[in-house]
Design a protein that fits this description.
- The chain is of the alpha/beta class and 162 residues long.
- The chain has one domain: Sugar-phosphate isomerase, RpiB/LacA/LacB (Ribose 5-phosphate Isomerase B, Chain: A, 3-Layer(aba) Sandwich), CATH 3.40.1400.
- The protein is globular and about 45 Å long.
- The N and C termini lie far apart (46 Å).
């Protein structure tokens, strides 16, 4: 399994439940020659709160969505994705095992730029495989996907009742 340079800076973050996975993946990405910023947690603390770290990584992707992406880790990945998706121009997908086709679809159709991993449900080797798949999947140029992604951004950034 090899990771080709993705030409994007990778922002990584986790809470205690994803700490071991984050540590292993950051080391692996750096071994592959990728540019990575580790936003924490920097030490295992069973009482830490994921918003403290996930917000840093998501905020960084939000500021440079064309030049960066994120990989975040938590127990299920769900709360982490909810936090990350609060930031403008961040589109997070969750993976916690099972059919990895979701990884391909999240990139091809939704141009997902943050991958949230449910560390309690997948091992580090499966995470590596998913990252390779995610980075190697091109975003489809179809107008309908671009239009839908633009609508997501517009609707979610306006305060209104539908």
């Amino acid at each position: 399994m090899s990771l080709t340079a993705i030409k994007k800076h990778i922002h990584v973050a986790c809470d205690h439940a994803g700490f071991a996975h984050k540590e292993a993946i950051v080391a692996w990405l750096r071994e592959q020659g990728e540019s990575v910023t580790d936003h924490g947690a920097m030490a295992y603390d069973a009482e830490d709160d994921f918003p403290d770290f996930i917000s840093r990584a998501a905020g960084a992707v939000s500021l440079a969505p064309e030049d960066s992406c994120g990989i975040i880790f938590g127990g299920s990945g769900q709360g982490e994705a909810m936090m990350a998706n609060r930031f403008p121009k961040v589109r997070t997908t969750v993976f916690y095992g099972g059919n990895s086709e979701i990884i391909t679809l999240s990139r091809a159709h939704n141009d997902a730029n943050v991958l949230s991993i449910g560390a309690r449900f997948v091992d580090v080797e499966e995470v590596k495989e998913c990252i390779v798949r995610w980075f190697s999947t091109p975003v489809l140029p179809d107008e309908k996907y671009r239009r839908r992604n633009q609508k997501i951004e517009k609707i979610t950034r306006e305060v209104r009742i539908i």
